[in-house]
Amino acid sequence: MNNFRVKTAFLSLLAFTALFVGLGRGTVPTARAAERKLIAITFDDGPSRYTEELLDGLAERGAHATFFITGVNGQSGAEHYPELLTRMWEEGHQLGNHTYNHITLTGAGWETIRRELQNTQTLIEQAIGGHTETMLRAPGGLVPEKLRRTADAPFIHWSVDTLDWKRHDEDRIFREIVRNAQDGAVVLLHDNYAASVAAALRAVDALEEEYEFVTVSELLRRRGAPAEPGTSIYSVEGALDLPAYVAPTVTFSEGTAELCSPDGLPVYYTLDGRFPTLSDGPAEGPVPVTPGTELIAVGVDGFGTRTPALCVTVGEEESPNCT
Ligand code: NI
Question: Model pTM?
Answer without folding.
Answer: 0.88
